[in-house]
Fold this sequence. Notes:
single chain, mainly alpha, 2 domains, elongated
Amino acid sequence: LSLMSHPLCHPQLEGLCSFLQLSTCPEPCLVRFCGWLLALSPDLSYTSAAVLAEQLFLRRVLSLTQPPSRHLMAALSSFCSKYSHPFCRVLVAAVLQEPGEGAEQTKLMCELVEECLEPRSVQLLLSQVLEVPLSEKLLPVLQAVLGQQVRHPPCPLEVLPPELLDLLVLTLCQQAPAFATSLSFAKLVTAVLTVCQGQVS
Length: 201
């Protein structure tokens, strides 16, 4: 396991993960493995953490058709608590690109936003969501981002980068006609006006 913290190149680490069959290992083993990862010193590099996020979780998350088991949720939460930035780059990006409703994936993203992601990664997730066409399935994710601000100030949205706030407001304005009958969209707009009232004129 100590090899994980050494500067392995991307193909070497992928090969090691494949050899260990990490993408299909039983979920209780996944929890223990993530516990070991968090105890490594020095910490994993960004690249290594991104590779491991993909190998450990990508297939499992994309295939969810029901809520994740407590073991999978524990593993996701522990990994995400320490390596949330590479986690977002790999997992969130893949979920956003998936066609269809992805109800379980959306619920999972909301839960991770509310419980696990560090503030800097919440901003990253917000920017990722705003890069794709807005859909009904993404509205709860944006609502969770704004809700985190209300529950845990100070938070990443307290001082949103101007360009990100502009993009959020512009996206909501442009998409308003398409969501004219959506209660979720109305709640989201209200939340933006409440949370960011000092920044929105």
